[in-house]
UniProtKB/TrEMBL annotation:
Keywords: Endonuclease, Hydrolase, Nuclease. It comes from the Eukaryota. Transmembrane segments: none annotated. Pfam families: DDE_1. InterPro entries: CenT-Element_Derived, DDE_SF_endonuclease_dom. This is DDE superfamily endonuclease. The keyword Ribonucleoprotein does not apply.
Length: 400
């Protein structure tokens, strides 16, 4: 028989079946093994290892745990901390345990982040701690959205294929799937929705911190030639309050991005005009006469108001709204920018956490100045190739 790696879960299933068939039907071990595609000697060996198998991860394919961990001395403290946090419902990730290990050991702290991450990951795997994520339920069949997208594209493609259409004036502004939000939401704590949990657990509960709903909103804008326009950050606060008029007005990053406040940190009909004045208009000032401008947005309510449409008409911008529930296939930022951008900001946050985290259950929150630094740095560092590829990955790729 061909060699095959068999999971612990299947080995135990075969053992239970063999016990039952030998007891009730008096079948030979050889015929039972043949029916499962294994050798009789394998079943005999598994019976000797039954106790060890029952304590091993169900998806494991070998009882050999590999080389011993080089941070075995941290196992009790780090893994113990993970179990303590899970018992009180706090979500834990590999990066949180990296921070914990850095607090415990200077030698570990001196290693590169990549080495730290791999050491913690191996330590967790050897203790049956795996990443768990909540499931997402689609409200419609994906093919329905694809059909709507194709119908919309059949109208858009001839327009953008015209010879006088320039790529730098084909513009997309990011919109998240969250209702009434038009950008990328960044919780100040950046705590993950995933957590490490024992494999096989049926219920995975994650407790939120008191500040978990403190958010800012980041609006990202790109052009089809790979250009990145100024990002916009909307913090929670009053539009004419102290944060907006004093703190943000004096920010060292105000020349690199548009900064605004809103009571819920959302984009609304007021601050979308801040985006127009601070991001779109400066880009259009370079507009070549006779070249049309196309702006692609989702169907967020503030994008479809009479005042916003009038403003776009006055600027000579043709507004194209992407069909509902189709941004995951049509909108370049959703397709190719959102994840790499968020991942890079999250990495900056983790490095900040390693240097500033206190030995406490609650995660410290970054200041607005830190958020601005991370967003500005990430947006400047993001390669233009990623921007261009985001258009290629979307169905707006025929003209790139």
């Amino acid at each position: 028989m061909p060699r095959a790696a068999i999971t612990v879960q299947r080995k135990l299933t075969i053992l239970r079946d063999a016990d039952e068939r030998q007891l009730n039907n008096k079948e030979s071990l050889k015929s039972i093994a043949r029916s499962h595609g294994v050798q009789a000697v394998q079943i005999r060996n598994w019976r000797k290892q039954r106790d060890v198998l029952s304590l091993t991860r169900p998806r494991a394919r070998s009882l050999h745990k590999g080389k011993p961990s080089t941070i075995k001395y941290l196992e009790d403290a780090v893994i113990g901390h993970a179990f303590e946090m899970r018992q009180i419902g706090v979500g834990i990730t590999y990066n949180h345990l990296v921070i914990k290990a850095c607090q415990l050991d200077e030698g570990f702290r001196a290693k590169t982040y990549e080495v730290q991450y791999q050491l913690i990951r191996r330590l967790c795997n050897s203790n049956c701690l795996v990443n768990r994520r909540r499931t997402h339920v689609s409200q419609e069949h994906p093919q329905e959205a694809i059909d709507r997208a194709e119908e919309w594209l059949s109208e858009i493609r001839p327009i953008l294929s015209a010879p006088n259409v320039l790529k730098e004036y084909i513009i997309n502004m990011d919109q998240t799937p969250l209702p009434f939000m038009d950008q990328t939401p960044l919780p100040f704590s950046l705590a993950s929705s995933t957590t490490l949990e024992l494999e096989g657990e049926k219920t995975v509960t994650v407790r939120q911190t008191g500040n978990s709903k403190t958010r800012c909103t980041v609006s990202l804008t790109i052009t089809a030639d790979g250009g990145k326009l100024k990002p916009m950050i909307i913090f929670k606060g009053q539009r004419g309050g102290t944060i907006a008029t004093r703190e943000l007005a004096a920010s060292q990053y105000r020349d690199n991005m548009v900064l605004s406040c809103q009571s819920n940190a959302w984009q609304d009909e007021e601050n979308i005009n801040d985006w127009v004045d601070g991001v779109l208009v400066p880009h259009l000032q370079q507009h070549a006469a006779g070249s049309p401008v196309y702006l692609f947005l989702d169907q967020f309510a503030a994008h479809d108001t009479a005042s916003f449409r009038t403003r776009m008409d006055s600027l000579g911008v043709t507004l194209k709204l992407i069909p509902g529930k189709c941004t995951w296939v049509l909108q370049p930022i959703d397709v190719g920018i959102g994840k790499p951008f968020k991942d890079r900001v999250r990495q900056k946050w983790f490095r900040w956490m390693i240097n500033h985290a206190e030995a406490d259950v609650d995660l410290p929150n970054a200041s607005r100045d830190e958020i601005q630094k991370w967003v500005n740095g990430t947006w400047q560092e993001l390669p233009e190739d990623i921007v261009r590829n985001s258009w290629k990955k979307s169905n707006l790729s025929w003209f790139v």
